[in-house]
């Protein structure tokens, strides 16, 4: 058959397109018998189209009724089933997830959404929405009640270390939380939402419940702290239970804490039940109390440099006396020139005269002295407070530098000294202090109210942690530099007449600290009782723990009533413990995992330094052997364990399709081999290597035509060749070689059967059929389209690289350049994902990303650009955004003529093909002369109904054959006349118009791009339009993009 060439119409912008190749795919041919609603041409009933008007303009656009934008006619089938880009962007940008348990959330799930109130747009910024709430939750009862005691017990250096450890822990947590918070739009619903959606329901449920219990016990801890401040420092006379003996003080105090704690818990629960708005109204007041209290500490420390406050401490020998039981720190005093005994003498000697028979021996042999409780920052007391002084329970607080006779004394008088109420150690203090650095989730819990949660949560949370950490560090130093050591170790302020220790340093009055700390602990308790029920409600609504479903319901206004009741009951358990130092470690444990620590604990208890050395040596040896690759097959258990783990993982993957967030392209790369079984386009492997970076699943497949029994050795050689090339291109994956009688059947088998279980490919990478125009056989491109249809039927994504020979190798580096994305129709987000994955590779890391989208006739291009920029910001994708307007829908003469030539070429090729009967008649002659045409493409060398004929056929002439030849010549003349008079199908004209216009825009905007990605139109449902479909693809990507790697993509199953 002679080679047929179509010469395009002269146009200064165009060149001969026969040598150019394109990419993208779509079906826009009309099915047989179907009328095109946009077609302005009529038919004469014989297949010949009569054109009403060869050129279409805007005035004629509405003649066919409703229709899609003519400038995007090539994608009209996609627009039938997928949302417009503009409407999709509008929905994504306005997306927000209301707080779980709120009224709006329940309305969103109900069918009566029509009566929904218009919700106010979030307006809180970083300062008010994150920074200040986090500070309020971090500062609390520990700062005011226990930090001074921790400094006195552990010393300044170890206290500094404790604060550093705890603050680093929360900082790392905040960084991790920030990574989640900045990974797209942050829905309301608090920290549980982020944890469960990031780690899965199992981890989310476990961590969420632990966090709920921790928050609940935190509420109990704050309530106990408020009661301790009330009964110890504000109104001691309000105590209900009083000690009957010297040793009953502890039990009486605990009973008072239980009673008042229960009362406070009930009152706070009622306030929360009535409404959260009342809690929020007092939040600013509570925060102001905290800030004023902290400022008073710094003011007092500065004042102590030149005017330290008067808080004398009474010492008996080197022992600290409890000052609340006597007023004068002396054994005797002079009254009216008469020496009399003091209250202190009476307490130790049990008489009011000078007899010493019943006196405590230690009291008689040691002197009573007074020292300054607050020496001030200039006194040099810091050097005495640097080191730790851990005590056992019941041990008397002593000042080591004071002279004293070491005599035990009477046990009955121990209540007169300041005693240690618990045994202390470094780990105990860490457990008690750690809750004072928690509370960093306050900002994430308000994510639904933040104007820009993606920015505010990381900035506000980290700044709050830095601020509070600096306050804690500075307070540790100030307390150690200003306050006497025995006063610091005095937990309840017995030595300073029952004053709050930190209050003795504050200025202008200790009551500033007392009142401020009381209100701050009450506020923190209210916040905990407000947040914990909503956290439990969110867990219950997710139904990950079925028996908790009842706690997902609440009042009509969305308040979690049942969850609040359970929270109050659990908090009551903490209050019945009645000891702040016992509840605080529970809170710490609720924020930790203890399971695997038992064996490690045994190692470190035996010898902590040997344990560290042993773990270090074992780890180094293991990694060395693993790195050296010890190829020993001993049948060890590790291989069996790996097999078991792989089986378990595959079964888990079978449980359901991956979530949108976890979707990544798992590749099946269809390679083409030449006659010597060498990879024809190795850059396809380079592309797969750069896209996957060794992660996920990559399968390299190829098809060898023949019989499996005869071609087994050839298949093995091809597999080894591909594996070698995979190693060169650093592709980590698997190789699959299939032997089939027909290449298209082999490809279909690969698409259907590659992978195992849930570990299957979801994306096919298919090479472009270069030179399909020059081939006289339609099989040169039919196999390509059949593969596209198989991929579509399997609901897989398809990637078609074009000009792949220009794709950069793994050793190249682009220091500049652009990756251009042409987002024409909604594809589930894959066009955004591909350049993001490529930019993780060192080749593309410095390239910039540009995203172009096309505005349709009724779209607001300005709003589209704004919405697209906001959408990309939410996804943390840095890209330049541009919206292209294609308002000129007039079809040019060039487009019309090019469509006409396309259809004339297709018609001529059909007329020049022999019928099946004629092909069978000449088959023997063709075989004898060995004239079968060999095609270049591996995907085109199979049997097909459209086989072409040899170029020359020698026949013996008979009368019948002569008559047949005359009829054929007459038929050729008629066919030629019909070819000249053909009118192009208007549906094809519109599709060609889309291809031409888009190509002009892409060439104009992306001629200097390193890589261009765009949507491929879908394949035609009617196979008669296959050749036209290939022509549309060529037109879409021709001209100056010949030296640019093109990546066409279609996504069949949407990921949104």
Automatic annotation (TrEMBL):
GO terms for biological process: cell volume homeostasis; chemical synaptic transmission; chloride ion homeostasis; potassium ion homeostasis; potassium ion import across plasma membrane. It is found in: Cell membrane. Keywords: Cell membrane, Chloride, Glycoprotein, Ion transport, Membrane, Phosphoprotein, Potassium, Potassium transport, Symport, Transmembrane, Transmembrane helix, Transport. Residues 29-62 are annotated as: Disordered. The keyword Transmembrane applies. Residues 130-305, 424-593 form the Amino acid permease/ SLC12A domain. InterPro entries: AA-permease/SLC12A_dom (IPR004841), KCC1 (IPR000622), KCL_cotranspt (IPR000076), SLC12_C (IPR018491), SLC12A_fam (IPR004842). Its main location: membrane. It is a multi-pass membrane protein. One of its GO terms (molecular function) is potassium:chloride symporter activity. The chain crosses the membrane at residues 124-145, 157-182, 259-278, 285-306, 422-442, 462-488, 562-587, 593-622. It catalyses: K(+)(in) + chloride(in) = K(+)(out) + chloride(out). Residues 682-798, 812-1039 form the SLC12A transporter C-terminal domain. This is Solute carrier family 12 member 4. It comes from Crocodylus porosus. The gene is SLC12A4.
């Amino acid at each position: 058959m002679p080679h047929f060439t179509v010469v395009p119409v002269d146009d200064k912008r165009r060149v001969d397109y026969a040598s150019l190749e394109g990419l993208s795919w779509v079906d826009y041919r009309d099915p047989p018998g179907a009328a095109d609603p946009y077609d302005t041409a009529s038919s004469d009933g014989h297949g010949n189209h009569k054109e009403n008007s060869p050129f279409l303009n805007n005035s004629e656009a509405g003649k066919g009724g409703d229709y899609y934008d003519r400038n995007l006619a090539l994608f009209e089938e996609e627009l039938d089933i997928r949302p417009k880009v503009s409407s999709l962007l509008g929905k994504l940008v306005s997306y927000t997830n209301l707080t779980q348990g709120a009224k709006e959330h329940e309305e969103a799930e109900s069918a009566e959404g029509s009566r929904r109130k218009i919700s106010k747009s979030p307006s809180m910024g970083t300062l008010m929405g994150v920074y200040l709430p986090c500070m309020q939750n971090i500062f609390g009862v520990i700062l005011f009640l226990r930090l001074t005691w921790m400094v006195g017990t552990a010393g300044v250096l170890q206290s500094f270390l404790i604060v550093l450890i705890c603050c680093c822990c929360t900082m790392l947590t905040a960084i991790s939380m920030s990574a989640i918070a900045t990974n797209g739009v942050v829905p309301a619903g608090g920290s549980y939402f982020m944890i469960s959606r990031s780690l899965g329901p199992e981890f989310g449920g476990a961590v969420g419940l632990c966090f709920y219990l921790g928050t609940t016990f935190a509420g109990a801890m704050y309530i106990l702290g408020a009661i301790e401040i009330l009964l110890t420092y504000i109104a001691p006379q309000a105590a209900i239970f009083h000690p009957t003996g010297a040793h009953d003080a502890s039990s009486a105090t605990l009973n008072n804490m239980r009673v008042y704690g229960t009362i406070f818990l009930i009152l706070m629960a009622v306030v929360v039940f009535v409404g959260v708005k009342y809690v929020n109204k007092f939040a600013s007041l509570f925060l102001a109390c905290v800030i004023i209290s902290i400022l008073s500490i710094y003011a007092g420390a500065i004042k102590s440099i030149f005017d330290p406050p008067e808080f004398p401490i009474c010492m008996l020998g080197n022992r600290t006396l409890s000052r609340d039981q006597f007023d004068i720190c002396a054994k005797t005093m002079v009254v009216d020139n008469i020496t009399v005994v003091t209250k202190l003498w009476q307490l130790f000697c049990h008489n009011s005269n000078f007899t010493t028979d019943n006196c405590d021996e230690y009291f008689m042999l040691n002197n009573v002295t007074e020292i300054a409780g607050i020496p001030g920052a200039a006194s040099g007391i810091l050097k005495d407070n640097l080191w730790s002084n851990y005590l056992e329970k019941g041990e008397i607080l002593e000042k080591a530098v004071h002279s004293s006779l070491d005599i035990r004394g009477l046990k009955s008088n121990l209540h007169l000294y300041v005693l240690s109420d618990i045994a202390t150690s470094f780990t105990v203090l860490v457990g008690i202090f750690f809750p004072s650095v928690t509370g960093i989730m306050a900002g994430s819990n308000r994510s639904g109210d933040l104007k820009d949660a993606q920015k505010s949560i990381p900035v506000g949370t980290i700044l709050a942690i830095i601020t509070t950490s600096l306050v804690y560090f500075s307070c540790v130093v100030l307390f150690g530099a200003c306050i006497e050591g025995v006063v610091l170790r005095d937990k309840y302020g017995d030595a300073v007449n029952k004053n709050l220790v930190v209050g003795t340093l504050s200025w202008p009055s200790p009551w500033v600290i007392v009142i401020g700390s009381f209100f701050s602990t009450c506020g923190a308790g209210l916040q905990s009782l407000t947040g914990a029920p909503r956290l439990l409600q969110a867990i219950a609504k997710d139904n990950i723990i079925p028996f908790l479903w009842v706690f997902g319901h609440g009042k009509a206004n969305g308040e979690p009533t049942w969850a609040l009741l359970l929270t109050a009951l659990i908090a009551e358990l903490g209050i019945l413990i009645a000891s702040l130092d016992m509840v605080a470690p529970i809170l710490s444990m609720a924020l930790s995992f203890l399971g695997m620590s038992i064996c490690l604990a045994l190692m470190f208890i035996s010898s902590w330094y040997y344990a560290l050395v042993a773990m270090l040596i074992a780890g180094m040896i293991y990694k060395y052997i693993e790195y050296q690759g010890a190829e020993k097959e001993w049948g060890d258990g590790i291989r069996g364990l790996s097999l078991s783990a792989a089986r378990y993982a595959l079964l888990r993957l079978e449980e359901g399709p991956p979530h949108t967030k976890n979707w990544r392209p798992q590749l099946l790369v269809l390679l083409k081999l030449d006659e010597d079984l060498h990879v024809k386009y190795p850059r396809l492997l380079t592309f797969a290597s750069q896209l996957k970076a060794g992660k996920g699943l990559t399968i390299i497949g190829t098809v060898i035509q023949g019989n499996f029994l005869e071609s087994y050795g050839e298949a093995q050689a091809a597999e080894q060749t591909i594996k070698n090339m995979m190693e060169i291109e650093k592709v980590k994956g698997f190789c699959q070689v299939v032997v089939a009688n027909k290449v298209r059947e082999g490809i279909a088998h690969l698409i259907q059967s590659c992978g195992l279980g849930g570990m299957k490919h979801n994306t096919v990478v298919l090479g472009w059929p270069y030179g399909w125009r020059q081939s006289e056989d339609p099989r040169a491109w039919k196999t390509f389209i059949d593969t596209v249809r198989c991929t579509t039927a399997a609901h897989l994504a398809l990637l078609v690289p074009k000009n792949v020979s220009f794709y950069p190798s793994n050793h190249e580096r682009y220091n500049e350049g652009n990756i251009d994305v042409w987002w024409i129709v909604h594809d589930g987000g894959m066009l955004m994902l591909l350049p993001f994955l490529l930019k993780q590779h060192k080749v593309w890391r410095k390239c910039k990303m540009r995203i172009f989208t096309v505005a349709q006739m009724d779209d607001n291009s300005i709003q589209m650009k704004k919405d697209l920029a906001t959408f990309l910001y939410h996804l943390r994708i840095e890209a330049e955004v541009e919206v292209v307007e294609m308002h000129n829908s007039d079809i040019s003469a060039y487009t019309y003529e090019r469509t006409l030539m396309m259809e004339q070429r297709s018609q001529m090729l059909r007329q020049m093909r022999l019928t099946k009967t004629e092909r069978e008649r000449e088959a023997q002659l063709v075989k004898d002369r060995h004239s079968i045409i060999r095609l270049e493409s591996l995907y085109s060398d199979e049997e097909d109904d459209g086989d072409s004929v040899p170029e020359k056929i020698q026949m013996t002439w008979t009368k019948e054959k002569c008559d047949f030849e005359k009829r054929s010549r007459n038929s050729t003349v008629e066919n030629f006349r019909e070819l000249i008079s053909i009118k192009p199908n208007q549906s094809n004209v519109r599709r060609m118009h889309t291809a031409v216009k888009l190509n002009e825009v892409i060439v104009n905007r992306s001629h200097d791009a390193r890589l261009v990605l765009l949507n491929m139109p879908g394949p035609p449902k009617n196979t008669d339009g296959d050749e036209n479909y290939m022509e549309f693809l060529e037109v879409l990507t021709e001209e100056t993009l010949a030296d640019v790697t093109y990546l066409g993509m279609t996504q069949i199953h949407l990921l949104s």
